[in-house]
Amino acid sequence: MRSHYFISATLFIAVTSIFYIRRNEGYTVANSNETMVSIANPAENYATYCAGCHGEKMNAFVDRDWKHGNGLKDLMKSIKAGWPDEGMPAFAETFNDAEVQELAEYILTGIKNRKEYDFNDRPTSDIFKSESMTVKLEAVATGIDVPWGMAFLPDGGMLVTERGGKLYKVFNKQKQEIKGVPDVVAEGQGGLLDIALHPDFGKNQLIYFSYSKPHPDNKRLATTAVMRAKLGRGGLSEQKIIFEALPYAPTRHHYGSRLVFDGKGHLFISVGERGNEKENPQTTDNNQLGKTHRINDDGSIPADNPIKDKSGKVTSLYTYGNRNPQGLALNPFTGELWENEHGPRGGDEINIMQAGKNYGWPVTSYGINYNGTTITDKTTAPGITDPQHYWIPSIGPSGMAFVTGDKYKPWKGAVLSGSLRFQYLNLSWLDGTKIVKEEKLLKNIGRVRDVRMGPDGYIYVAVEAPAAAIYKLIPVE
């Protein structure tokens, strides 16, 4: 189910959009024998005839190029005459000239009123005000250029991964490097990635971390892997690779990769499609890229996993059709597994992950290619699980956490996602599982790579350089 902020194109399959942009959203021309009655109010006309393809909030105009001009006369011409060869119908018989002009002016005003993100509005203090509460940032760790993942230790300390390939223990605002980390491909988006503690860490001292692993025989190739190790005073020991996503690839992006334990001892792993959108995300036989996985704590595969290979053997696959999932969290109120993932140019998503489901990439998407060309004209399709929410333009989501406890009562139950692109913390309020409102927190703090709820009830965010630090959000009365 999509967020109610946006209207699915399928709801308006007979009444389409007002002009053609480089991404053809799948226009349908109305039957010429049908009589279409316009509404005098341009806002209602837009909602009826245009919103299905261009979004209730005109979101589909963002990050798009105007192919046939962006002036008032250009838009009026497109509305009246259409572009039949490109799938854009004419509305000359639907609207009179006055209504065409009113609709065009309404669209141009709406686009103009969409505020561009202001990167120049830099923080001037460590105090940040939101609509419902104020927080103060306290730095608990500094000097880590790209802090990728965080895990909280029983002694009050914290483990932090640095993408360059180092693992730190942070305690009382001091950090100590932990030895024993494997070699990582610290290129592009690769490196040392997420980290998680075993549910019985207090007894077995086991930790898990994901990383970009070089191929043993061909350093040009790499993949997303997960290692299990024992944490001791001398560093890591008993290292064992318990998961490798096949096939290896030469690209240096879209590794994923978040780690989450459920309450049954299963480890969930998100893996990106490594940039191969044509094959990896939709191929479930002998291909582990563009998927989320579920394994046991020792790397074995649960017998009740939902997807089997051609021979009938159960695989680690839990979902497929994912692009680059960089946020993963269990909803503590429902037990559901939530995920956020990067779209291309537009179409970042929040999903509720269900066993065996296909999440569409690249069969369906709200995004376009970075050069402005079309990836797909479908935003929904049979057999595809639609996103819970999507962002246009892309915010570059990374990290995910649900707000619990009473320290942040106005935010309790909401879901947090870091924004790499726009450098803020995104707060999404929920009504059940529907995202009904959003707010930008900590604007321009820096690229927010991860967000977690600590066992002390505080929110922690990992921010990349130049403001590189792990921050604790302290409510201010």
Q: Could you describe the 3D structure shown?
A:
Keywords: Heme, Iron, Metal-binding. Pfam families: Cytochrome_CBB3, GSDH. It comes from Flavobacterium arundinis. This is PQQ-dependent sugar dehydrogenase. Helices cover 9% and strands 34% of the residues. It folds into 2 domains: 105 residues, Cytochrome Bc1 Complex, Chain D, domain 2 (Orthogonal Bundle); 347 residues, TolB, C-terminal domain (Neuraminidase, 6 Propeller), CATH 2.120.10.30. The strands form 6 sheets. It has a 5-stranded antiparallel beta sheet, with no helix packed on it. The N terminus is likely disordered. Helix 1 packs across helix 4 and helix 3 packs across helix 4. It is globular and about 80 Å long. By secondary structure, the chain is mainly β.
Mean pLDDT: 88
Number of domains: 2
Radius of gyration (CA) equals 24 Å
CATH C-level of the largest domain: Mainly Beta
- CATH architecture level-2 label of the largest domain: 6 Propeller
H/E topology pattern: HHHHEEEEEEEHEEEEEEEEEEEEEEEEEE
What topology, given as strand order, has the largest sheet?
1-2-25-24-23
- Overall structural class, as computed from helix and strand content, comes to mainly beta
Content of β-strand: 25-35%
Q: Helical proportion?
A: under 10%
User: What's the end-to-end separation, in Å?
Assistant: 37 Å
Note the topology.
Blueprint (H helix, E strand, L loop, with lengths): L41 H8 L1 H4 L17 H10 L15 H17 L13 E3 L4 E9 L4 E6 L5 E5 L3 E6 L2 E5 L13 E6 L3 H4 L1 E9 L7 E11 L2 E10 L11 E6 L4 E6 L19 E6 L20 E4 L3 E7 L6 E6 L5 E6 L35 E3 L5 E6 L12 E5 L4 E8 L2 E8 L6 E6 L5 E5 L5 E8 L1
Antiparallel strand pairs: 1-2, 2-25, 3-4, 4-5, 5-6, 7-8, 8-9, 9-10, 11-12, 12-13, 13-14, 15-16, 16-17, 17-18, 19-20, 20-21, 21-22, 23-24, 24-25
Helix pairs in contact: 1-4, 3-4
